[in-house]
Amino acid sequence: MKILLAGKSYQKPLEGWPSVEDLYVFISVARYEGFGRAAIELGQSPSYISKRIAILEKQLETRLFFRTNRVMRLTPEGEKALEGALQVVHEMDSFLNNFQQWRGELTGDLTVACSFGFGQDYLSDTIAEFMTRHPSLNIKLMLSDRDIDLLQSGTDVDIRVGDDVNHSYIARKLAANRRILCASADYLARSRPLETLDDLIDHSCLIINENNNTFGHWTLTDGENKIVCRLNSHYSSNSGKVILNWALKSHGIALRSAWDVAPYLSEKQLVHVLPQWYQEANVWAVYTQRASESPRIKVFIDFLADYFAEKSLPMMKGRL
């Protein structure tokens, strides 16, 4: 049986049409504002990236970037082209996803972000198990102790520990978790008494820099009341591993996830202080509305939810 296509919506492909690969290269260069980082992301040489952009500009008969020695930025035509390129790549991604889902397999790329400690000590094994079930997928796990923009970074799913989730994203709770106050016995022995939250001002508090929180403050709860504590400290870092190390070396009081400090509490290297007070810091899978339409992302998040449901976070060894 012969299948005929009719209507204005159908057009025979032209020889000068841009390739989807070149559009993907263009999107990466626009994201990183340069050939170098785009080349690293795509596993290609900068000269290859430059060549593909030149071909795309020739096909579109327009200049896509303003170029200087230090920076590249989109021209007005480039900004318009980027909108269209994102749409084309998304539609192609959906086409491939739907086709592969019909065939019963998942393919394509999946970029996952997470903090260093949780990613290294826990999520890496989780992803490895997921990959054994879906070997045709390409998964990239990107670790950072800073907040990221999902769209600008090209991240599909961000696994976040903490309840300060951007409301413009979709968030699915994977596991319950609390951050608790702890310090070494040596630090407590040489410091002033610590009996109430008001006493924290007289102590060295080890502060982690988080973009969404007010620096120098901890928001704690006892389940009924929520208190914002003003802190005094000369120690701060954007790394949870560094904060934990400082606490173990008696430099002050840390606010860390219960699963993070559980082994050190059991070995009496750390002491749980003011145990009635804690901070909610649940584990979330965060993604965009567009990402929620992807079959592979849906399957991945469902897998994470089932995996975490079988685990007891407070007993895990690791670092946020």
Structure description:
The protein folds into 3 domains: 20-99, Arc Repressor Mutant, subunit A (Orthogonal Bundle); 105-176 and 282-315, Periplasmic binding protein-like II (D-Maltodextrin-Binding Protein, domain 2, 3-Layer(aba) Sandwich), CATH 3.40.190; 178-280, D-Maltodextrin-Binding Protein, domain 2 (3-Layer(aba) Sandwich), CATH 3.40.190. It has 10 helices and 15 strands. It has helices at residues 20-32, 35-42, 46-60, 76-102, 116-133, 150-153, 185-190, 240-248, 258-266, 295-309, and strands at 65-67, 72-74, 108-114, 137-143, 157-161, 170-175, 178-183, 205-208, 217-221, 226-230, 236-237, 253-257, 271-272, 278-280, 283-287. The strands form 4 sheets. Strands 7, 8, 11, 12, 13 and 14 form a 6-stranded mixed sheet that branches. α5 links the parallel β3 and β4 (137-143). The radius of gyration is 24 Å and the shape is elongated. The model is unreliable at 1-10 and 315-320 (pLDDT under 50).
